[in-house]
Write a structure and sequence with these properties.
GO terms for molecular function: carbohydrate derivative binding; glutamine-fructose-6-phosphate transaminase (isomerizing) activity. The chain has an eight-stranded antiparallel sheet, with helices on one face. A six-stranded antiparallel sheet has the order 5-6-7-8-12-13, covered by helices on one side. It is an alpha/beta fold. It is globular and about 80 Å long. Helix 14 runs parallel beside helix 18 (576-594) and helix 15 (455-464) packs across helix 18. The N and C termini lie close together (11 Å). The protein folds into three domains: 3-245, Aminohydrolase, N-terminal nucleophile (Ntn) domain (Glutamine Phosphoribosylpyrophosphate, subunit 1, domain 1, 4-Layer Sandwich); 249-451, 3-Layer(aba) Sandwich (Rossmann fold); 453-601, Glucose-6-phosphate isomerase like protein, domain 1 (Rossmann fold), CATH 3.40.50. The longest helix is centred in the last third of the chain and has 22 residues, at 431-452. The structure holds 5-amino-5-deoxy-1-O-phosphono-D-mannitol. Residues 304-307, 351-353, 356, 359, 402-404, 488, 492, 608-609 line the site of 5-amino-5-deoxy-1-O-phosphono-D-mannitol.
Length: 612
Amino acid sequence: MCGIVAYVGHREACPLILKGLKRLEYRGYDSAGVALLNGEGLKIYKKKGKVVDLENELQNKDLHATVGIGHTRWATHGEPNDVNAHPHYSNHKKLAIIHNGIIENYDSLKQALLKKGHEFRSQTDSEVLVHFIEDIQQETNCSLEEAVRLALQEVVGAYAIVLISEDDPTQLIAARKSSPLVIGVGENEFFFASDATPIIEYTKDVIYLDDNQVALVRQGELKIVNLENERQAPYIQKLELELEAIEKGGYDHFMLKEIFEQPRSIADSMRGRVNREEGTLQLGGLSDYMDKLAEAKRIIIVGCGTSWHAGLVAEYIFEELARIPVEVEYASEFRYRNPIINADDFVIAISQSGETADTLAAIQLAKSKGATIFGVCNVVGSSIARETHAGAYTHAGPEIGVASTKAFTAQVTVLTQMAIAIAHKRGSITEELYQQLLLDLSAIPQKVGQVLKAADRIKEIAYIFTYARNFIYLGRGLNFPVALEGALKLKEISYIHAEGYPAAEMKHGPIALIDEDMPVVFIATKDSSYEKIVSNIQEVKARKGRVIAIVTEGDELIPNMVDFVIEVPETHDILIPLLSSIPLQLLSYYVAVMRGRNVDQPRNLAKSVTVE
Ligand code: M6R
């Protein structure tokens, strides 16, 4: 949450920072600001709203500077307004800070500073930090770098920060703990950003700062130290990301582009792993652990939101194929309820961003108890990917729309491969089934392409339900997590209240909601619970509910019972979520567009939830 961009070098800083902030708007978009340093001193410009509102504010101003910092905010402390927007000045306005994260002990620091006469302009925790740093520098007469280190030793919480100082126009100081920060290394220029997207068009050489590291750029030189001032060797990596991957490519929204990318992203998540011709499946990242995994007594899966839903799908698949007991936990609950974790447990952490604070804390807890941790992350080099013992990247490519779509199907594809590989190793599936699953999995990208051809039909259905006030999503077995995911997609981008339920649970309560105004989406593909879900559809129709059903191609029964039908191709039961989730993504997308919502940046949300 919150996006950071900073630059020092020979280019015009302001346009570069604004462009970068637009790329990071998925991280927060309630206000934005820049601080620029030039002959006239340190100037801050900030504005409530999107980066484009800031841009309008900046028109006709002299913004010439080759050093600057910028921020796009997702509010935690203090409402979204001009004053609470970042950057924040220090007490004497000699320093400015941008911050992503939460300073948990900000109040005690603030009280002490107030007693010393500091005057605060905003309600933010971030402003307290820059005052605190300036105060230390003045009291101890030390360098800014030293003051940053001393201050951070006192800080409780999470941060990625960048500081700019009027006293030294060639200098930027950055630090991180539990919030991401990437440094781009160019020719006599340096970039700082929350992820690599603002950087890639200038340099592919990046350094992912580690927790408790402080980076200092001064007169074109980069130095990294830890909080104890021990020099740290910078590890420069080459970015593999291409610019086209983070642009809309002709689509109206990133979300639509990402939905339509799924034939490719699912194929990418199998690339180099499934070899259909040779009938083999290999997950390089897990190979050292396969013997231990074959003996696993229990797997715990942790995640949040959509990633948690992917975990629920995986639970069914692991238990069905590998016959290993699986528990799926909300990371936010798991970390605080003193869970029983054994040293022989395997924990799988699922996260698109790889930065979700609760998931990160959950795996740190499990690690401290001796469990083996695997990551299923999309963002390469992310905190969760680095914190785990091993894992498999989803390779879905950058997902920019706040609503997760291609990340979900890529997560499910990777988890399915893990389950098949472990089941094969354990001997809990026959060679014949193993080979069949590899064939069926390989056919999924092309079948997803087929589902996407129904987009216009789904748009028509969405039009009919644009003004619905509620939705219910029902599914059984593997389609139950798909129902949860469909409901989450709809509510987060259209702001329509939607509930997902196991279809059989309906008669224990939700059926009371059914009347002619209640749209009910049944995910009713042909699988082992088909007859049962047909009965559930009848129960809804008997109460005049309006039913949209996702069915298997060629189904002749359900289309005669329901109001609207969307077909998906036939596949093996365990692979159905990879197909049945796609129409639900499109349905929520079109409903949200017709309601005039900001699909890629829905209100109150951010793509990367780095606060708990
Ligand atoms: O980056 P993560 O996968 O860890 O994010 C977890 C959730 O915040 C995320 O899936 C969220 O629920 C999405 N907005 C859902 O579309």
